[in-house]
Every structure is written in structure tokens, then in C-alpha cells.
Amino acid sequence: MTDHTTRRRRTTLTPAQWIGRAVVALVLAVFTAFFILPIVWLILAPTKTNNELLLNGPFSVGSLDQLAANWNELFAFGDGVFATWLGNSAFYSFAALAITLLVSIPAGYALALIEFKGRRLLLITTLIVMLIPNTALVLPIFLELSAAKLIGSPLAVILPFSFFPFGVYLTYIYFSTAVSRDLLNAARIDGAGELRVFGQVAMPLATPVIALVGFFSFVGNWNNYFLPFLVVGGQKIPVQVGLSNLLANVPAFNPTTATSIVIQLPTLALATLLSVAPILIIFLFAQRFLVEGMTAGGTKE
Amino acid sequence: MTVTSPPAPAGVVPTGRRRPAGRRATRVNAGQSRYGYLFVSGYTLLLIAFGLLPTLYAVYLAFTRNGAFVGVDNFVRVFNDYRFLPAVAHVALYVLFWLVSLIVFVVILAIVVHGIRVRWLGNSARFLFYIPGAIAGASSVLLWLFVLDPTVSPVSGLLHAMGYESLVNVVAVGNLPVVFTVIAFWAGAGGWIVIMYGALNNISTDVMEAARIDGASHVQTAWHIQLPMLAKWISYMGIMSLAAGTQLFVEPKILAQATKNVVPEDYSLNQLAYLYAFRQNDFSGSAAISITLLVVALGLSTVFIFRGKLFERD
After folding, report:
1. Predicted complex ipTM
2. What is the DSSP letter of A77?
3. Does any domain span residue A126?
4. N or C: which end of chain B has fewer CB within 10 A?
5. Which residues contact B94 (CB under 8 A, 6 or more apart)?
6. What pLDDT is attached to residue A83?
């Protein structure tokens, strides 16, 4: 409110201020276009035929009928293998999500609120591993799994996906700032055991951090390409890996493609859109929650 | 990716502000500590199985050949591979471009968006910048294949004006560092902008108000007050992005596939490690490259945790 009144009072702008504002507006416009136009294009492309895509304006709208035709072409490809890929992605991501929550939430809770030997060591290790890009461990994990003869098993994807030190760290931060020890001690004095303290006092308070950890775990695993690309094949690949297989059947990119079944560009665009649709939808619905979660602490002081 | 990467979800970090949690309880309670172990047991197992063991196994592979200890032979062999140095150069150039563009544009955009007084406008801008973060991995590369292909691109006019007639022209090897920078920036910058924005909110309004009354322009306030306040976040972003950037894999991999190896399949270090394992069946060589990359990442993250002030340890 105060911002508005002070702005209204200074109605006359110097030329320098005008130029400043124009530059700011231009910068914002250019970057907004950069970030958003590719997504708009991706949403429109599957409504067109291949020729419309090549000849019409990039932001022209096709028709719903054509969208349905492209949809049918995509799901007919390889006896509906695209649906299998989507199902695999969902299976891997949800299974890993469940394990991640099951192990990370208690671990973060214990690191924050229970004293035990080795706590600091575990905490520092978690921090160090958390800051390593997750791709750095992919080849070593592949080598390990192939020594353990687990390559090709869904577990080879799910178990490494479940290891999520960032989630433990988030939970640790949450419990050490948002839940007081005194509250837990009061419950202990009332005779509650440790499991009840965790289950009935701490857990009900933990909903926001469970959602946040769940979100980051799901998004990270759904979008992961490198690990599943190495450890599973055939019918077991998730959609991210499937997409690149699809690419091999697009004549526009591979003129010498050997297969007789081809994928047209609008169908490939539809596949790309569907491969990110679950994540895009979560982003759209959870935006306020996420932005608040990401800046938690930063905005409160 | 990388970005994105990701992985840990690229670029998302809570602030280090917190009360030291463990200080007050001085005596370790035996009953409690048993439950402490129980609560961390599952996570610790995963940490050992997918953090510690693979690292140790890769170290073992990197220093042996067919089970016999060979010292640094594997490292010497891969470093002398004619593909190794070009891959280092490719990755280094890409990381340089990416870091510079991240630092310059993320900081400018965060400050500009933070300066927007109209609330819904600022919020929408942040959200719109952040949304591409939803599209990572192979999907973002595929989307950019379309954007960079002059025949279908939403910016085909721009590409034609720059003299490009086909995808293969656009992704010529010399252009790749820029191409990968654009893709990584598109997907990853928004998350960092949101984080920087949060950090800017930490600057007390009194300080900003005082500067305005003293007649400081927006540029002066940004340069003398906001930028120093962001310094530790910028260094954090830089180090994380440097570590992630060295891991470049999915972008050149898919571009190689889409262009029938106009983009070479040994462009980046991780691709080379992949070729060693899958094409040459040489796990020792692959492990040597992986360990080299892992040491870089571990070094960066360890130095940052012990020297940086972002994660004060308790």
C-alpha cells in the first residue's frame, strides 16, 4: 500500500527514469518470451499436421481433430509402447517416492531432534553428497549394479532413485527450525515413547516438508535420463529414455531411418509434451507453495 | 540436467539460517539414541549402498585391471586417449559460457523482478521464469531440437537471419557450447532467480529506504547494497553449476542421435566414460573418468561446506 502512495506522488519522471523503465520493461519482455515461447509452441504443435507445422506460422493453432490423429499415431506406435513408457515412469517415480519419504523423514527428524553418536558425521556426509550433482554417481552406480547382476531389474532404477540426501537435509532444516524440543520433551514427560513422539507429535507438524520433499523427489526422478538409460532396457525404459528412442524413428531427423513405421514431427512434439505433462501440472498447481517453500527462511526475517 | 539439473533438483536450496538444533541437550540419552539409530537406519543403508559403495567400487576398478592392481595406469591411458583433451576443452568452454550467463542474467533478472512494485506482475514474472524448470532431461533437449531447427522453429526468422538453414548448421560443433548454455539456462535459471529473489527480501527495507533518501539511483543501490548481499548466493550458484556443468551428458547424447553424429558421440567427458563402458567394455577406463569427475565434484562441494558460510554446521 505504501508503495503505491509513494509512487503516485512522484508522478513526474525525469527522462533518465523513463529510459530506465523502458530498459527494464524491454529486459523483462525479452526474457519472458525466451522462457515461455518454447512452451507455448510445444503446446500448439501437436494440434497441427506435419505440413502445417512446416508451412504455417509457428504460433498458429491447428485443430482438435488433428490433435486426436496425432494422439492416435503416438499411442499406436510400437503397439502402444508409449503408454508402457509412461507407466514405467510413474511406477519408478512413485515407488522411489514412497521409499524416499519412508526413510528420509525419520532420518531428518532424528538428525534434527535426537542426540546420538555419529549424528554430526552423518549430517556432514549428507551435506557433501547432497551437493554432488547426481549424475556424478551414475556410472559408479551402474558399475556396482552390474557387478551385483541387478541390471535390467526395476530395482536398479527404484533403489538409487530412493537415495535422496537433499530430502533428508530439507527435513532436518524443517524440524530444527519449526519444531521445538520442549514440545517433544513435554510429550515424553507425559509418558509417550519415542515412536509415539515421532508419530503423533512430530508427524502432524511435518506435512509441509513431506510435500516439499515428495515434490522434489518426484520431479527429479521423473525427469532423470542418465541412470535409467544405463540400467534398464527394452520394455522397461521410462518415458525420458523412450523419447530418445522415438527420435530414431523421426524421418525429419533421421532421413535414413530403417524402420517402416515413422513418427511425424507433431507426434514427436506431442510425445515431448506428454512426457513432461505430469510435472507441468504439478508446477502449475503448486506454484505458490513451491515458491514459498524454496524461499522459506529467506523471506521471513 | 545438470541443470537441472539437476538432479538433486537443480538449484533449489533453503537458506542456512537456523538455530543450532543439537546444542542444548548435552547428555546423550541412551534410550533416545537407540531410536535415533532406528530412524536413520534406512537412509544410512541407502547412503552406503548408493553413495559410499559405488564410489569405493569405482575407485577399486580405476586402480585395477582384470583384478590386478595397476596403479595409475588406467588414468594415464584415458588421459592420453586422443578424445580426452578435446572433451575436457568442450566441457570447459561450455561451463565457462554457462557460468557467466547465469551469474550475469540471474542477478540482473532477480534485481529487476525484485524492483517491480506491482505485486502480481512481480509474482507472475518469477513464476514464468521458473516454469521451464518443469521440463528437464531428454524432454528439454527434444523441445530445443524443435526450437533450433529453422524449418519448424518458433524463432525461425531469427535463425534464418543469422544465416542458418537447417538444424545441422545450428548445432555445428563450434556452436555447441552456446547451444548447451541456452538449453541449460532456459531450464535452470528460473530456480536460481527465485532463490536470489528470496535473498534480496532479506535486505532490510530500512537500508533500502535510507539509500533512496540519500539519493541513490536504482543502479547504485543494486551495485553497492544488493550485489554484496547476494555474494554468497552467487558463489553458491557458481560452484553448484560448475560441478553440474562438468557432468554434461544428456544434451550432446541426444543431439548426437538427432543429427546422426554431426554432434560427436564423444563430445563430453561423461559420454566418453559411457563409450568406455559400453562400446569398449573397458570398465576400468570408464571408472577412471568417473572418479576424476567425482573428485572434482566432491572437492567443490567439500570446500564449499567447510569454507562457505551458507551451511553453518552445528
Report:
1. 0.86
2. G
3. yes
4. C
5. B176, B177, B180, B181, B245, B248
6. 95
Domain count, chain A: 1
Looking at the DSSP bridge assignments, the partners of residue B65 are B68
Instruction: Return mean pLDDT, chain B.
Output: 84
Q: Distance between CA A203 and CA A193 in Å, rounded?
A: 14
pLDDT of residue B276: 93
| Interchain contact A77–B (C-beta under 8 A) | no
Q: What is the predicted pLDDT for the residue at A10?
A: 52
Task: Enter the C-alpha cell of residue B49.
Answer: 549402498
* All residues at 6 or more sequence positions from A290 whose CB lies less than 8 Å from its CB, including other chains: A212, A215, A283, B130
Task: Quote the CA–CA distance of B56 and A147 in Å, as a whole number.
Answer: 13
- Which one of A101, A294, A300, A301 makes the best mutation probe of the B interface by having the most chain B beta carbons within 10 Å? A294
Query: Is-contact A171 A103, C-beta < 8 A?
Result: no
pLDDT at B214: 83
Residue B56 near residue A134, CB atoms below 8 Å: no
Residue B195 and residue A295 in contact, taking contact as beta carbons nearer than 8 Å = yes
Interval B234-256: pLDDT, tens: 888 888 888 889 999 999 999 88
CATH number of the domain that residue A184 is part of: 1.10.3720.10
- CA-based nearest residue in chain B for residue A215: B9
- Note which residues in 124-153 of chain A have CB less than 8 A from chain B: 124-137, 139-144, 146-147
Per residue in A178-233, pLDDT (tens digit) is 888 888 888 888 888 888 889 888 888 888 889 889 988 999 999 999 999 999 98
Within-domain flag for A39: no
Rounded CA-CA distance A134/A46 in Å is 33
Domain ranges within chain B, ordered by starting residue: 27-71, 74-307
Alpha carbon B24 to its chain's center? 37
Is residue A4 situated within a structural domain? Answer: no
State the CATH class of domain B74-307. Answer: mainly alpha
Domain boundaries, position A285: 80-294
Q: Which residues on chain B are in Cβ contact (under 8 Å) with A89?
A: none
Which A residues, 197 through 256, put their C-beta within 8 Å of a C-beta on chain B? 198, 216, 219-220, 223-226, 230, 240-241, 243-244, 247-248, 252-254, 256
